[in-house]
């Protein structure tokens, strides 16, 4: 061996390298100045010969192997004639030659400032630094890999480009951050990879990339290099308008949300096992249907990558990757872009509450709890079988905050529905005695999660203005939609789970018993303005033996449909934005299953088609009259006309918009009894125009007819000076338009 090469080599590092436990391989590998010359070192086990040339293939020199069979090659050369763009010519056999730039000749692409912000939990574009990023450095094309694994002894990138050999691309750690990085020349989009992590106990783990933008289709679970830059967005006008929206303006807009599971909305009948459509194929089909039905928003379940179909996307392993089930990241960009072109908002379900225990995922990522809390009483959901994020750790906080912004900014998504917020707020959520740890004050509030929500909602509003951040929060936690500055959590909207439970209990009853449970129908208005609610009939209500919406309704088949039309009509009249899960708009009989397509064949049945027609009419009525949405969160937007008529199970109420014109009167009958001379109080004199009745024959009703226009009588009724008399159809909702006249 050359004397100067021997002098240069640090033999402790040499031993660590060969043992696969070196966390700073750039120290001993690559090109290094030494005295008046240069030292080349390369570690390529199984190589027979290695030569070095300049970028033009000239100045060729051969490296010598240091130690027989070590795979470690080195050479000292006089002078300093080589630059960092040199090439390695690696011979594994006479006809098996790899020519590549040296991965250990490139500087880090992550700065000290990046590392500082990440450690502070405030690097809101960390997804541009960590993960796998195709790029060109010094004229060399390849992929830059970076991963956070502070407890690891060593980390390697392994993949189909290096025979999954962890010895070939050991990464270096940067400063004291726990971030490992390497640039690998020649690795292109489409390459499959994982991180091989040597733990401090000596175990080898194979982990998918937490920041990967693409993954293999399950059941495979490796990450895939993806280039998510360069998509030509066509929604500039949409995005420019979005940033001008405020919390106040967004709350005054109509929101009729169609909640969807893309994989089971429609499936191909082509004999394939999954029958999935691609995002690009789905885009026009979804947009056409949503527009036809009059919905304004789509909310997508399960877009972030997840291994198990039956989790519906709520047990995520790839937080930064649209699921491969329906295509690649740019296919999903196309989907969002197409929705915007058609004027449709896109909301994603987002899961910062917990993650699954799959071996390739986030759990015990570097051999120790990293993303999850180390104490099982804080770090696990015993009944769900999942891990809970450690919200106290700044890098984990950063992972989640940046992830939300990633979808809002990189994919132009218009909003996030934050799943399982209650499980984050309460330390004892879903846990028995002894399974949870109180906070420092002895309570069950999760202070770290509260801080996360404060930080999140402040930054989302600043970094992605005009987006919709919605809480699925099932308890009476105060101030979920109040501004952070006023002590609230800062969400824009909250799902109204209390209304949903009470209302479905009421609708499930035989009408005979509804009189004694009238409060279940009316109680929601006592707290309707405590939060900014969305009225939801979501996927959670039509799974796990709960039955579809139509099968929750009592009575024979015609009564079931009449009950459901009445339920939907009341929901659309009630203050709050609207959400309905797919398939319920045409009264699918079966519970929803992710394994099969919706039962579209039911639209050949008259009753189901009529139900679909009714929901379409409701959506178009909702969008046409601002009385149904503009004052959802203002007490002036709603007034009971009659809410105490429990024996007849009827209610009537008024919805008010921005002006005295086009106010709406709802009259609801929750019994199968027709009233020939029903009278209800009304707010003013004038003429009332019947806009919609769920009892119309075209919707499958009995066809009880009223005059198109009814003049209010100056006859006191239920405390109102004026009243209307009409025929009130059985199990029906009737909507009248009127202008306010003193």
UniProtKB/TrEMBL annotation:
The active site is at residues 419, 472. InterPro entries: A-amylase/branching_C, Branching_enzy, GH, GH13_cat_dom, GlgB, GlgB_N, GlgB_N_E_set_prok, Glyco_hydro_13_N. It is an enzyme of class 2 (transferase). Pfam families: Alpha-amylase (PF00128), Alpha-amylase_C (PF02806), CBM_48 (PF02922), GlgB_N (PF22019). Catalyzes the formation of the alpha-1,6-glucosidic linkages in glycogen by scission of a 1,4-alpha-linked oligosaccharide from growing alpha-1,4-glucan chains and the subsequent attachment of the oligosaccharide to the alpha-1,6 position. Belongs to the glycosyl hydrolase 13 family. GlgB subfamily. Monomer. This is 1,4-alpha-glucan branching enzyme GlgB.
């Amino acid at each position: 061996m050359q004397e100067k090469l021997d002098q240069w080599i640090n033999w402790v590092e040499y031993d660590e390298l060969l043992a696969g436990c070196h966390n700073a391989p750039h120290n001993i590998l690559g090109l290094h100045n030494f005295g008046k010359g240069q030292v080349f070192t390369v570690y390529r086990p199984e190589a027979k010969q290695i030569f070095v040339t300049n970028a033009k293939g000239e100045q060729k020199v051969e490296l010598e192997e240091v130690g027989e069979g070590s795979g470690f090659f080195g050479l000292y050369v006089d002078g300093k004639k080589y630059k960092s763009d040199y090439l390695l010519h690696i011979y594994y056999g006479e006809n098996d030659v790899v020519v590549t730039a040296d991965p250990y000749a490139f500087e880090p692409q992550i700065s000290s400032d990046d590392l500082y912000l990440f450690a502070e939990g405030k690097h809101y574009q960390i997804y541009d630094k960590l993960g796998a990023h195709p790029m060109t450095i010094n004229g060399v094309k390849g992929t830059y890999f970076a991963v956070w694994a502070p407890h690891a002894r060593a980390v390697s990138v392994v993949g189909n480009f290096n025979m999954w050999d962890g010895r070939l691309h050991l990464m270096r750690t940067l400063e004291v951050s726990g971030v490992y990085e390497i640039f690998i020349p020649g690795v292109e989009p489409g390459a499959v990879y994982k991180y091989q992590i040597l733990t401090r106990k000596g175990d080898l783990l194979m982990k998918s990339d937490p920041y990967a933008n693409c993954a293999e289709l399950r059941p495979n679970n490796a990450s895939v290099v993806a280039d998510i830059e360069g998509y030509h967005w066509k929604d500039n006008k949409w995005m420019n308008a979005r940033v001008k929206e405020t919390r106040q303006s967004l709350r005054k807009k109509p929101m009729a949300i169609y909640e969807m599971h893309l994989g089971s909305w429609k499936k191909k009948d082509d004999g394939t096992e999954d029958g999935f459509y691609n995002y690009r194929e789905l885009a026009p089909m979804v947009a056409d249907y949503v527009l036809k039905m009059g919905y304004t928003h789509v909310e997508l379940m399960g877009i972030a990558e997840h291994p198990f179909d039956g989790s519906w996307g709520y047990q995520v392993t790839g937080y930064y990757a649209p699921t491969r089930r329906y295509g690649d990241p740019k296919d999903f960009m196309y989907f969002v872009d197409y929705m915007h072109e058609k004027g449709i908002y896109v909301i994603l379900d987002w899961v910062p509450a917990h993650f699954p225990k799959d071996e390739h995922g986030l759990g015990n990522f570097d051999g120790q709890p990293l993303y999850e809390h180390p104490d099982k009483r804080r770090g696990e959901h015993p009944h769900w079988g999942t891990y809970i994020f450690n919200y106290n750790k700044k890098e984990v906080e950063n992972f989640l905050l940046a992830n939300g912004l990633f979808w809002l900014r990189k994919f132009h998504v218009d909003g996030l529905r934050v799943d399982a917020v209650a499980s984050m707020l309460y330390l004892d959520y879903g846990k028995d005695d002894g399974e949870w740890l109180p906070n420092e004050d002895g309570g069950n509030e999760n202070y770290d999660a509260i801080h996360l929500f404060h930080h999140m909602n402040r930054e989302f509003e600043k970094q992605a203005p005009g987006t919709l951040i919605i809480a699925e929060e099932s308890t009476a936690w105060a101030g979920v939609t109040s501004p952070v500055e006023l002590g609230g959590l800062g969400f824009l909207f909250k799902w109204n789970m209390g209304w949903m439970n009470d209302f479905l209990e009421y609708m499930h009853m035989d009408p005979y018993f509804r009189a004694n449970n009238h409060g279940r129908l009316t109680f929601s208005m006592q707290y309707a303005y405590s939060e900014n609610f969305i009225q939801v009939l979501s996927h959670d209500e039509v799974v796990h033996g709960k039955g579809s919406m139509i099968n929750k309704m009592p009575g024979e088949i015609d009564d079931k449909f009449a009950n459901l039309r009445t339920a939907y009509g009341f929901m659309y009249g009630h203050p709050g934005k609207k959400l309905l899960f797919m398939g319920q708009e045409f009264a699918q009989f079966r519970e929803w299953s992710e394994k099969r397509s919706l039962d579209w064949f039911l639209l050949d049945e008259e009753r189901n088609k009529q139900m679909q027609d009714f929901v379409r009419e409701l959506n178009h009525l909702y969008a046409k009259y601002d009385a149904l949405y503009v004052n959802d969160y203002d007490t002036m937007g709603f007034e009971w006309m009659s809410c105490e008529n429990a024996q007849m199970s009827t209610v009537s109420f008024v919805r008010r918009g921005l002006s005295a014109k086009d106010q709406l009167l709802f009259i609801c009958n929750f019994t199968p009894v027709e009233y020939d001379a029903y009278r209800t109080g009304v707010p003013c004199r004038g003429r009332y125009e019947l806009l919609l009745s769920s009892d119309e024959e075209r919707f499958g009703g009995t066809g009880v007819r009223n005059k198109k226009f009814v003049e209010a009588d100056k006859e006191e009724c239920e405390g109102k000076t004026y009243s209307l008399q009409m025929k009130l159809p059985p199990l029906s909702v009737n909507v009248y338009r009127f202008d306010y006249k003193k």
